[in-house]
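Protocol step 4 of 5: obtain the predicted structure for the target chain.
Materials: sequence only (see below). No template structures provided, no constraints applied. The aim of this step is simply to have a reference model before the mutagenesis design in step 5. Sequence pasted as it appears in the construct record:
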Amino acid sequence: MLVAVLSDIHANLPALRTALQLAEARGADALVNLGDVVGYGPSPSECLEIVRTEFAVNILGNHDAAVAGSDDEALPRDGRAAVDLHRAMLSDDQRAWLRDLPLVAEAFDATFVHAAPFKPEKWPRLESMRDTQIQFDAFDTPICFIGHSHRQAIVADTLGVFRVREGHRYLVNVGSVGQPRDRDPRLGFALFDTEAFTVELLREHYDRAQTVAEIAKVGLPKALGDRLQRGV
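Step 4 output (C-alpha cells):
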C-alpha cells in the first residue's frame, strides 16, 4: 500500500489540491493528515472538509486545537490573528470535529503524530539530537511520522543510517504542504510504501500567488503571504 502523509496544510487550498493531484498521480492508496489543517492560510473551511471526507487518518495539531477553542497564547502574533479569523470562518460542527481529533494514531504499521510522540500534548520542537533520540522510546511501530517544524527530515535509531529500509526504526518529518520553512517555497509531503518499507519525500510547486491574493482578501496579515513566497 502507498500512503501519502501530509502535514501542516494551514488552510492553503491551492497547495492542498496540488499535493492531492500529485499523490493521486503517484498512485497513493490512502491519505493521512498529521495536523494543522487550519491556521495561517485563507481557506480553513474548504481544507477541513477535504481532509475529513477524503483522508483515512487525521491528527490534531496545535493550530487545530487553538481554533477548536484551546489557549492560543503560545502561538506567534500572526498565528493568533489567523486563529481568531478561522474560529469565525468555521461552523460549530467543524470546530467540534477538530476538537475530537486524536493526538496520536497507529495505522499502516506506523505511528502518526503532529509534533512528537513523546509528550505530544506539549507540541515539542525537536531541536537537538537528544530531543530526537528520546522519541524512539515513545512509539512501538517501525516508523513514526511527524510534522510541526515545517521541515523535511529522516532520522534513524542508528547514527549513519540516512535512508528508510527494513532493520531500523525511523522518525520522519514530512514537511509542510501549506507553509514550508526551509527556504524552499514548494509544498512538501511524504509517500510511504508499506510493503517495500520505503519513504519518499516529495516537493512540488503550486500557485502561491493565488494563496497570497486570498490571504489579503480575507484580511490576514500581509506577512503571512510574504513568507509563502520565501519559504520561511
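Step 4 remarks: The beta strands are 2-6, 30-33, 57-58, 104-107, 110-113, 143-146, 152-156, 170-174, 187-193, 198-204. The chain has one domain: 2-230.
Proceed to step 5.
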